[in-house]
Amino acid sequence: MIRCAPAVLTATLTMLALLASSATPATAGNSDPKVVLDEVYGQVDAMCGGEGQGPAYDIYVIAEDYFTPDLAKTFTSAMDKGDLDFDVLVDAQDCKLSDLKLEVVKSEADTAVGRATFKNMGEDRVVDLLMAKSGDDWQVADVVYRHRTFSLLAGE
Description:
Blueprint: H1 6-21, H2 25-28, H3 33-48, H4 59-66, H5 69-81, E1 97-107, E2 111-120, E3 123-134, E4 137-145
């Protein structure tokens, strides 16, 4: 039997708990459309909510972790070419979110629509994440605006 001081045991257990909880978002939560919506916009809200002073999120990492391969490729290509000069998650270059409301408005066996409704810099925004199930994981297949005409996948 291995014996250790209570402080060492507590530190070890704490470290194991932290390691277990630090799974990447793609493996941690993509099993449910609401979780995907909450994780994506949780990062946006952390940076842009309140005083807008939270940790910056990396839109490329979000695309890689949550978008379908086709949508991630479309997004990266548009960004690299300069065709997309704004953050598709907030429909702006700058952000200061308020009144964020997240809900899954449609859910079927292999498709779902997660909706983010908020104000950015005082302007109303409604962004739908169209999701598709791939195996056990849900991925964002398109980002569509309801407040104006825009589809990331269509490039317009």
